[in-house]
Specification:
The structure is a single chain. By secondary structure, this protein is an alpha/beta fold. It is built from five helices and eight strands; from the N terminus they run E-E-E-E-H-H-E-E-H-E-H-E-H. This is DUF934 domain-containing protein. InterPro entries: UCP030820 (IPR008318). It comes from Nitratireductor thuwali.
Length: 177
């Protein structure tokens, strides 16, 4: 789907395939008056008074930029249905660490969504560190996901939020067989 600017509208993908996106973006607290689910920047979420935050929390997701501290969101994770982690450029990998922290340190069980510059070569690693959904707008990535491809390699250098499917880590010694 192209809009009038020629950019591709992001599509939501999970391991189960493409999904309908039931979340909208809101850049200010005033936009939260209408019905529906909203993803807001951390600054908007933090600026809400406690009563408003508590009332809106079941239909709020928070997006963290690479420079945002995941610790600022930690006290609010209980009952928060979605945390979106931004990839403004594929070369900025700080959101991988945030996903891993959300799953391992904070035991966050809600949806962790990758947004921004999501490329096919990142998909397998994003799933391993704890992402549950990916907002994809890159045409070659969309085509490969539509074709059922997943990418990735069979060996991993480190453990992650999700164990390696093959149980193979390149740094572990294997008995000679």
């Amino acid at each position: 789907m192209n809009d009038t600017t020629g950019t591709i509208e992001p599509r939501l993908w999970s391991e189960q395939g493409f999904l309908d996106n039931r979340w909208r973006r809101a850049e200010s607290a005033e936009e939260l008056d209408s019905e529906g689910n909203f993803i807001v920047p951390l600054e908007v979420f933090a600026a809400l008074d406690e009563a408003a935050r508590s009332a809106l929390k079941p239909r709020l997701g928070v997006e963290l930029q690479p420079g945002d501290d995941v610790e600022a969101l930690a006290p609010h994770l209980d009952g928060l249905p979605l945390v979106a982690l931004a990839f403004p450029a594929y070369t900025d990998g700080r959101s991988y660490s945030k996903a891993q922290l959300l799953r391992s340190r904070y035991a966050y069980e809600g949806e962790v969504r990758a947004t921004g510059d999501v490329l096919f070569d990142q998909v397998a690693h994003m799933l391993r560190v704890g992402f549950s959904t990916l907002e994809v707008k890159n045409a070659p990535t969309l085509a490969r996901l539509e074709a059922g491809q997943r990418g990735g390699i069979g060996l991993h250098y480190q453990p992650a939020a999700r164990a390696a499917s093959s149980g193979a880590y390149s740094w572990r010694r294997q008995a000679a067989g």
